[in-house]
């Protein structure tokens, strides 16, 4: 798997059963070592009369999706192709209560993933993701580096709720599993070419061949992507000379005063997989991948400047003692661009009266958002007997990259971050899976080991507070775990499952920037059980109920600006109760699944953004008490008539704080806030606020109709809608950093040849050209008076030509 890649009412409907033939092929591949790879060409909705089931392995054995008693969404590789879903963040368009988005400008090549209200926005390497991402069951150890392309996949599985028993790193919110297509030696060759808006040019190609008949197969794929940035960097002195003071502009600019862009992409990579079948009971899979991503800085705009903090906050002495004497103008709202998709960021710190081009900090930073990653993995499947199987999964990954963030998106330097990320990890997992007493008892035992080393380097400056330093902060994680789970089939209809995992994890940190400190290592020992019962009412209907526990390890504040800010935080825990049903109707023309859940979220970790007692920004994580999370999910897939396919989902995650604590200036309910202006009395709306980065409601829906053109092939129009309710980006749910509820429309038209050998797809994303902010960086609460936003991509078109020879 390579890196770097890419909902409207409760009754919204959507479609995916157009790929039933591909799903059937995928199921065959999952069940038999010599099975065929899934069909990767887009299929017509006319191809099948019913909705095909998908074979998954989320519980470490091959199961039909409809027979698995957990809240899970599975999407085949063929469906991803049909719908034009190319990046990991696109998966949110397929599942309820799932929110995925590209991280903002300080967090680099990362995807902020939330499931049922639990996730992570900060990609600092010492913080753990709230949603685990697994590529062929190898855990991605950090949020940084998680911008995977959906390249050459058999399927994607999205598991909702804590996965603390079977999965490697206690994914407290849920897990996303990317399962690659295995080599099968069918001799196929595939190629794909996409062009589109902003000079987009994507190329993909791959082949799957036999090296030794019936024994050794190899599959290789490669890709290249490029696209211009969609936010223009404008020279302020050129565009608005009357307000520029002594700021100067580069020479020879055009009438648009453009000096560059943000949000451009330049990525290339590849993957090679080798499959070896030495005997009928042994299968060995080896894979290696590499990605080189040299993209531009994340798209960002200055949205607002707080006038009160300009007059009375830290920006007042900054302007009086620094900005006005050197530039002749203060930093204020003049630097908010007059229209969207523009920024006045310059990526250097120039003092005019120090001489031409001389930087204040002797540091100019490149406008980049890069990552270079590679990894190798080996999986060995050995059938010890007909009923007992051993699996070994070994993985090593390494990646490094950099991201640039101009805090103020303006030519007067309030501050900047140039973060250089380095990480490498090794993991080893052993699983023993079997059944006993004529499959009355199905069981799994396992052991897991993970170690990683991460280093955050680069320069940081926050000029109003006199902070200017180079960081070089290494951290280490060691994780050892043992687990077991068993399912007892009491009758043909009734089954009971129980399992538990024991985790021993150690973390250590060393801080070397404006001070040096090595806090004592942190050690965590946790038991995470799971218990469930399921009952088959009929062959077409199942109900289930479950209890699960998950945890996320604690640590130390990863970015202390003073020694007093080197504060620890403890692990957080989630106890989740869930009940659900899975049904199919009318000869599988309709699939309807649903679940309700209740979570008790304790000792939860929130990122603070406020001044400390000395007036220095405190941007660290804190434990803030507890919350209750209630909600439901519904998923539907239908083929009501021939050629027509509909699918959709809706989810609610109702998040209620029971106590908040210091991260928002509160203590327990009923206690007066330590920060002026914050009312923490129980019953205050603050206690029913929405957590950062997650919507309360999500929904998606789509419909497609396959038009049979006879010997000329088929033509399939498709329309998708994705909805999310309001998202807040400050702990107090301030309206200033709010992404309003919205629905985004995508449209696609695909022509498929009669022999399914080639296709042409024309697509439009954000069809209504809705403007919105993906996320905000709210530094007003932190005392800097600045609100930045990452604008979402505008309407874009694409044209894809795909060919497969077999």
- Report Rg: 26 Å
Percent of sequence in beta strands:
over 45%
**CATH-scheme architecture:** Beta Barrel
CATH class: Mainly Beta
Give the % helix: under 10%
Main pleated sheet? 22 strands, antiparallel, barrel
End-to-end distance, in Å? 23 Å
* Count of separate structural domains: 1
Q: CATH topology, which one?
A: Maltoporin, Chain A
Shape: globular
Spans of at least 5 consecutive residues whose pLDDT stays below 50 are 1-40, 351-359, 667-686
What is the number of helices?
5
Roughly what is the average pLDDT, rounded to an integer? 87
SS-derived structural category? mainly beta
CATH superfamily: TonB-dependent receptor, beta-barrel domain
Beta-strand segment tally: 49
